[in-house]
Amino acid sequence: MLRLNPEQMAERVAQDIPDGAYVNLGIGMPSKVSNYVSGDKQVIYHSENGILAVGPAPARGEENPNLINASKQYVTLLPGGCYFDNAESFAIMRGGHLDIAVLGAFQVSVLGDLANWATDNDKFPPAVGGAMDLAVGARKLFVVMRHTTRDEEPKILEECTYPLTGTGVVRRIFTDLAVIDVTPDGLQVVELFGDNTFEEVQALTGARLFPLA
Amino acid sequence: MIGGFGSSGIPLKLIEALRQHGAKGLTIISNNAGVGEEGIASLLRDEMVSKIVCSFPRSAGSIWFEKRFEEGSVELELVPQGTLSERIRIAGAGIGGFLTPTGFGTKLAEGKETKVIDGKGFVLELPLPADFALVRAECGDPWGNLIYDTAGRNFNPMMASAARVTIVEVNSVVEIGGLNPEHVVTPGIFVDRLVIEEAQHAQA
Question: Is the Cβ–Cβ distance between B8 and A68 less than 8 Å?
């Protein structure tokens, strides 16, 4: 089976970011997506701490310790960009002003429920950050994640077993095996990578999939 | 409550002064719980904190938070980030609560009042005021008007409005009239004290 690596997964997500979109990229793998968005598209990135039009990493020695993104990495501001406080930043999210948010996930359900902030390990302190606000607020929520856990257990399920981030919020799932849409009728496969077959992907999925039309 | 997001816009000098002051049993409201040995991490290390209200306590290097959480000496109230900033904002704005879709149907809404409006679920969230706000700004004037540096703004403006006593650490102070009124982010009415960071450049 063809399993995309994280860079290839980010590249695939980037293809679905349209020109002119306002986009928020979650921490971890989603933050790689901007590296692959084609230069002929104008995409404006939002950072939850209070930035619109986040630019690339600064040159060494040019870092401003205050100018960081949600992943706490040094960034720059593009011309036309601006700063605002955290309450306004989350008004932008909850108010439905962002076109797309890309988040990682532990689990996604057939109804588009998302679990990405806590596991069932009580000793591990949870951290939620802006995930719940993005989940309910972005017009379209993309999830990018490995299709299965390291133990080959499915992460796409009838029902999430981990605590939920939001209910019925995920629109499209990009995994290392396939692209799957969450629709009112169920999970629709829209792309299989390489020679991956529907049956192979279905076997690694904990919910019923609909094959490519 | 203490301003800042990650390493950005944190009043490190004020936190160090608080650490030296030695108050115990503190409730800290902040987005993160500190990393390394500095800032909020130093208050956790010195066992001054009994409760922390934040959205993202766990980060690479948040060793003191993790240790105190594991041993059960610090209570954690985890709040989604946008709910945290809005609860602080309304505390400063005299609003009694707000209905947010964030967290509806999740563990973080358990025990809270909910309401369905036009088929969409909302959670009632209440204001989050504090006795003291420690705030970091770039520049102030003698009336306490403040401007910030880039994303260092983050939680600082809301916190400045939501505490009984607001103490602000600034890089520099200009005379009255020295700030462009169109650029002022925090009106001085919210600010009680300004502390000017000592210039460190001379030693470098």
Answer: yes
Distance from first CA to last CA of chain A, Å, rounded?
Answer: 21
Minimum Cα–Cα distance from A82: chain B residue: B150
Q: Which residue of A has its CA nearest to B69?
A: A125
Q: Tell me, yes or no, whether B37 lies in a domain.
A: yes
Nearest-CB residue to B158 (from A68, A86, A128): A86
Nearest to B132 by CA among B35, B7, B23: B23
User: How does strand A209-210 pair with strand A186-192?
Assistant: parallel
pLDDT at B50: 98
The residues in A 94-123 lying below 8 A from B, measured between CB atoms, are: 94, 118, 123
Report the 10 Å Cβ neighbour count for A146: 17
Residues of B in contact with A130 (CB under 8 A): 55, 80-82
Beta carbons of B80 and A133 less than 8 Å apart: yes
Q: What ipTM score was computed for the predicted complex, to two decimals?
A: 0.95
β-partners of residue B98 are B125
pLDDT class of A120 with cuts at 50, 70, 90: confident
Which residue, among A47, A52, A86, A169, would best test binding to B if mutated, counting the most B CBs under 10 Å from its CB? A86
Helix (H, G, I), strand (E, B) or coil at A43: coil
Nearest-CA distance from A166 to chain B in Å?
6
At residue B202, the pLDDT reads: 40
Q: Residue A154 pairs with which residues in a beta bridge?
A: A148
pLDDT < 50 regions, chain B:
200-204
Q: How many domains does chain B fold into? A: 1
Mean pLDDT over residues A35-63, rounded? 96
How many contacts, defined by CB atoms under 8 Å, are there between A and B? 140
CATH number at residue B159: 3.40.1080.10
DSSP H helices, B4-130, are: 12-21, 40-45, 63-70, 81-93
Inter-chain residue contact B82 with A133, CB threshold 8 Å: yes
Q: In which domain, by residue range, is B60 found?
A: 12-78+130-197
Q: Do the domain assignments include residue B147?
A: yes
Reply yes or no on whether the pLDDT at A27 is more than 50.
yes
Q: Which CATH superfamily is domain A6-210 in?
A: Glutaconate Coenzyme A-transferase (3.40.1080.10)
Hey, are the CB atoms on B155 and A127 less than 8 Å from each other? no
Task: Give the active site residues of A.
Answer: 48
Q: What is the pTM of this model?
A: 0.95
Residue B157 belongs to a domain: yes
